[in-house]
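Table 4 source record.
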Amino acid sequence: MGSAEAAEAGPADEGATLLSLSGVEHDWMQEGLCTRRPDIDFFPGKGRRAAAAKVVCQQCSVQLPCLDYAIANEIVDGVWGGLSPQERSTIILRRRRARAAGE
């Protein structure tokens, strides 16, 4: 979705873009539809829905690298690659368990 700094910063101000292109870590981040959709909340708070952000992600050409990045870096805030923090946490935990089991 955006840079690690955006994830660590927490919820963005309403109407602000989530990704500062000057802080882009990877070229694919510039292509994310999230950078052009400040009206969509990619960091919904507890009890708020992430459905609109997920729809944007499903249409995004960099959905898979975004998801891979978020999982590899264990980013637990925001919608990245079309998955919520809870959905990514499940994948991260499974991978940790697999590594611990020597798989």
